[in-house]
Sequence to fold (457 residues):
Amino acid sequence: MKKLWSGRFSEQTAKITDTFTQSISYDKRLWQYDILGSIAHTEMLSKQGIISSTDAELIKKGLQEIHDEIQRGEFEFLEELEDIHMNIESALIKKIGEAGAKLHTARSRNDQIALDLRLYVRDETNKIVELIKRLQSLLVKIAEDNIDTIMPGYTHTQRAQPVLLSHHILAYYQMFERDKGRFVDSIKRVNIMPLGSCALAGTTINIDRHYTARLLGFDGVSSNSMDAVSDRDFVIEFISHSSMLMMHISRLAEELVLWSTTEFSFIEISDAFTTGSSIMPQKKNPDVAEIMRGKTGRIYGNLMSLLTTMKGLPLTYNRDMQEDKEPLFDTVDTIKLTLQCLIEMLPEIRFNKVRMLQTSSEGYANATDMAEYLVSKGIAFRNAHEIVGNIVRYCVDKNKGLSDLELSELHGFSNLFSDDIYEYLDPSKSVHKRQSFGSASLNSVIQQLQEIKKSQQ
Fold:
């Protein structure tokens, strides 16, 4: 088949060259954006008098027919035509003749693919933001349903201090809030129109790039044609934000895996989101959460892949940049599927509130509260820390918990202890004594929820 760029060549490309250099097998998913951009470009060419209104109508009609054929699954994508741009343009010329050959006036595949990718990333970013919002709404509901459930908080995977499950869950809300903010903020860098930069240097033809930008809903137009065709920062940024989002999902998934173990027994994940063992009949494995955790490395790999591809490229466009699409597409697919799966799985998790409360008073998790009690009685914190450390050692030797100690035993360490110390040693009471802004207390959680709902209005 004759290539649309074959004028300078006397020999046909080898079959292996066609196979090796083609991108149609994956960039065909950009077809809607390619047609959308071509229609806008056609309207601009017609407005400027560069092509006739008759030709413009023929082109738009032909593109719409191609759109409908692809949508119905009737369009044949050909490897020898390399990419989505050449497949659509070749089909257009075949369909409407010479008028179709005028479509590529004042543009190159270099700025055309930059346009398609920006339109694609803009759309997918908005879809992901909506999924994050759904996830956040679900986390708020879980927090409200478990607003006063006590659980142990951890540092170094060791029991640290009693906290509220609602406070713990809202920590993830805040992580996803930052993720959402990064995606939203990135739109202003994505939403810049590159079309009309042509191969790298612009064009002598009197086009109106700002008009095309308005038709396509862009906020601005690229101001440097060389940068416009060689820029993939917006793709790298998208995958970078996706990497952080997946990191947060992975942390949540890791906790779900831990909490579902017999050793923790904090939660039970629905059978619908677990699997069994091929050899051990008793097993109920949190495979969905584990795969979420595992897919994070896949997204990190996509980020490193594209960073490595771009790091040594001179200006402007180089064919290496064809390698931007598969990491991007894979990231989009993985993020959306993972978010959807998490959204469906979380409501099917049951929390073992009794077990959480029980473990909150074990492992001397209330030691810090005891030290702060002594501070409230006038002892310097370092001295209080040492006193309580001695008490913990005493309890370890006696196989007792802090709340098991008699007042007479406590007086062996400090005469400042009185009956009110036991409120500090009861997790169901001590968590509500936290006064600092953003702390793990019921009042703090209520305040967080109020601020969240206010921000969503």
